[in-house]
Amino acid sequence: MKLEDVKLRHPFIVCAVPIPVLIGCVLYTIYENPVGLDRTHCAIPNYIPSVSAATGVGYRKLFWTVSISLSCIIRVFLHIAYHHVLSDLFASGNCVNEQCSLGFHSCIHFTEILGLFLLTVFPSTESFPIHRNSFALFVTSSLLYGITDLYLLWRLRSLRVFESSVKKPLRRKRWTYVVMFISVFLATLFYFIHSTFCAKTSEFTFSKDGRPTTLTGLLVYEA
């Protein structure tokens, strides 16, 4: 397998199930219990349910857990293929640092998948401490993976000359990382604003930013 063999269709395959399920759960939650969207700990309107509120109860939790589980399984296989590609590209040179980075790159990705799976299985409506720690694990490992992946791609560009068919997906991956980093920063910022000051629309903004954080976390590794 070559680097260009990982096509644009792969990230869409990874997100093909979770995105429709998430949209359906959010819309059904708004329809089923619009009054409940006002019941934050600050008693201020939320307007749109958080991911946990929309996917943490009854059949919605079952559908969401199954969709994320399928996505995680696909991502594991895609990452194994991606890891073999990177290993082959670095194998021709004496790159000890890159080999160590590849090992960390692989381990931290599996950690990120585990964090995503745990925060899906344990929504904040049922077990907030586990959900909070799982989300922290997911976000931290996502950022570490992104930094490591960008470093490895930068090293590859300095060691090899790629065709235009490879450069385009690499640029797309970098821009996807930018979206993810901004989403993580905004979600964290508005979470602390909401928790500390109970500012109006802060929980609503956090709920919106939490979705790009999760979805780019699904997309970025396979882009």
TrEMBL record:
Cellular component annotations (GO), alphabetically ordered: endoplasmic reticulum membrane; Golgi membrane
Keyword Transmembrane helix: yes
A Pfam family this chain is assigned to: Frag1
Keyword Membrane: yes
Transmembrane segments: 12-31, 62-82, 102-122, 134-154, 175-193
Membrane topology value: Multi-pass membrane protein
Coiled coil location: none
Ranges where the CWH43-like N-terminal domain occurs: 11-201
Annotated keywords: Golgi apparatus, GPI-anchor biosynthesis, Membrane, Transmembrane, Transmembrane helix
InterPro entries from the UniProt entry: CWH43_N, PGAP2
Signal peptide: none
Protein location: Golgi apparatus membrane
PANTHER family: FGF RECEPTOR ACTIVATING PROTEIN 1, POST-GPI ATTACHMENT TO PROTEINS FACTOR 2
Protein family (similarity comment): Belongs to the PGAP2 family.
Name the record gives this protein: Post-GPI attachment to proteins factor 2
Species of provenance: Schistocephalus solidus (Tapeworm)
